């Protein structure tokens, strides 16, 4: 069965985030579960084969070097100075770090993990029932997408706006499994608090006004990602093609312990081996623009396992849809490298130009 991706917006003059299109895209989980491995002929998965997958080295030995930031130490007067220096270095040198002692209660994390597992186990037509609700994304309304419109990725995705609170309408959220809405509500509230702390500490490393990324100026988009195994050609497909995120920061929770995330560093790919209790944070495009390039939005991708599925959930801390983001300069001598960016325009470009070979961020740079 072919699945219609919802939210076909994006026609001229329409003012909404267009996260999908009306292109027919196959649900990959269904493709895998409904075919015996030998039936998945090269023809059937041809569109997912990524010829450039091995173009850059994968340096697993550097996994151990991925920075780890202890939020507890940032909150302790005795350790805050050293830990802030580590945070600054992580943002400057890596654009990516793991956060320990993040303060999100275990039961909230366990709850969202269980719900996501169960959600993806629901029959396809039930999930499609939620996916195909009309999504008006204007001003961070609701959005539901299962699959990307330019789909090369071996993944099914389901996303929704969860902040600001006044814009969200929980009646659109999946009500199966029974505890899902409540769990999303708890998890996203906790993550909003956590994002707030992290961006406040990041702002301190730069002498920025933390108000720039304060709750009233941001939204939150949540995306649940399901990457089925690929028995026949795991090394030739990607769960998520290389990209950077259109966020200030993104917080990622690995729902099960199947590895797959790789980050780009000095031209190579470094697989991330997450610390069991950590959440993963990366710098997104809007923080790169705001810091005038001092903190880089890191490119990342997701590889696929031959036998095991991977599940993850990304929480994007994003600027308000009707806002702008400008570089904040350290001093008057500093050369401005990025344009003042209209969030809505950037979002459109981001969502439409994935495969034009140019990073969306390049459009935001002054030449
Ligand atoms: O699943 C992952 O590890 C990464 C997901 C991701 O990069 C994203 O949602 O933007
Ligand atoms: Fe990402």
What does this structure look like?
The protein is of the alpha+beta class and 367 residues long. The chain has one domain (55-362): Jelly Rolls, CATH 2.60.120. Helices cover 27% and strands 20% of the residues. The protein has a 7-stranded mixed β-sheet. It has a 4-stranded antiparallel β-sheet with strand order 7-12-9-10, with no helix packed on it. The chain has a two-stranded antiparallel ribbon with strand order 1-2. A hairpin with a 2-residue loop joins strand 9 (261-265) and strand 10. Helix 4 (80-94) packs across helix 7 and helix 5 packs across helix 7 (180-206). The longest helix is centred in the middle third of the chain and has 27 residues, at 180-206. The protein is globular, with a radius of gyration of 20 Å. It starts with a strand and ends with a helix. Residues 1-23 and 134-141 have low confidence and may be disordered. It binds 2-oxoglutaric acid and fe (ii) ion (FE2). Keywords: Iron, Metal-binding, Oxidoreductase. It comes from Lolium multiflorum. Pfam families: 2OG-FeII_Oxy, DIOX_N. InterPro entries: DIOX_N, IPNS-like_FE2OG_OXY, IPNS-like_sf, Oxoglu/Fe-dep_dioxygenase_dom, Plant_2OG-oxidoreductases. Belongs to the iron/ascorbate-dependent oxidoreductase family.
């Amino acid at each position: 069965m072919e699945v219609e991706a919802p939210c076909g917006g994006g026609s001229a003059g329409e003012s909404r985030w267009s996260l999908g299109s009306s292109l027919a895209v196959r649900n990959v989980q269904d493709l895998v579960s409904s075919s015996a491995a030998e039936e998945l002929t090269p023809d059937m998965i041809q569109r997912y084969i990524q010829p450039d997958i091995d173009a850059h080295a994968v340096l697993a030995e550097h996994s151990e070097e991925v920075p780890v930031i202890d939020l507890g130490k940032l909150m302790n007067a005795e350790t805050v100075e050293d830990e802030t220096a580590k945070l600054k270095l992580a943002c400057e040198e890596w654009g990516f770090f793991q956060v320990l002692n993040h303060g999100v209660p275990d039961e909230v994390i366990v709850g969202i993990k269980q719900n996501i597992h169960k959600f993806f186990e629901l029959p396809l037509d039930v999930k499609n029932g939620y996916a195909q609700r009309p999504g008006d994304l204007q001003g961070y309304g609701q959005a539901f997408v299962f699959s990307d419109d330019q789909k090369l990725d071996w993944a099914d995705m389901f996303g929704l706006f969860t902040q600001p609170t006044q814009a969200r309408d929980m009646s659109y959220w999946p009500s199966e499994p029974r505890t899902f809405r409540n769990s999303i509500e708890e998890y996203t509230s906790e993550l909003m608090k956590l994002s707030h702390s992290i961006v406040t500490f990041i702002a301190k490393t730069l002498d920025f006004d933390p108000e720039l990324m304060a709750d009233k100026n941001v939204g939150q988009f949540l995306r649940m990602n399901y990457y089925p195994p690929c028995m026949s050609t795991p090394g030739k497909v990607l769960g998520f093609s290389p990209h950077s995120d259109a966020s200030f920061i993104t917080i990622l929770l690995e729902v099960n312990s199947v590895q797959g995330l790789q980050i780009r560093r000095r031209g190579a790919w470094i697989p991330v081996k997450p610390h069991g209790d950590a959440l993963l944070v990366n710098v997104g495009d809007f923080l790169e623009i705001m810091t005038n390039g001092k903190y880089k939005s890191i490119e990342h991708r997701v590889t696929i396992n031959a036998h095991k599925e991977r599940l993850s959930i990304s929480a994007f801390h994003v600027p308000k849809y009707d806002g702008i983001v400008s570089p904040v300069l350290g001093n008057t001598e500093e050369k401005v490298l990025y344009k003042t960016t209209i969030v809505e325009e950037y979002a459109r470009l981001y969502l439409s130009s994935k495969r034009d070979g140019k990073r969306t961020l390049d459009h935001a740079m002054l030449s």
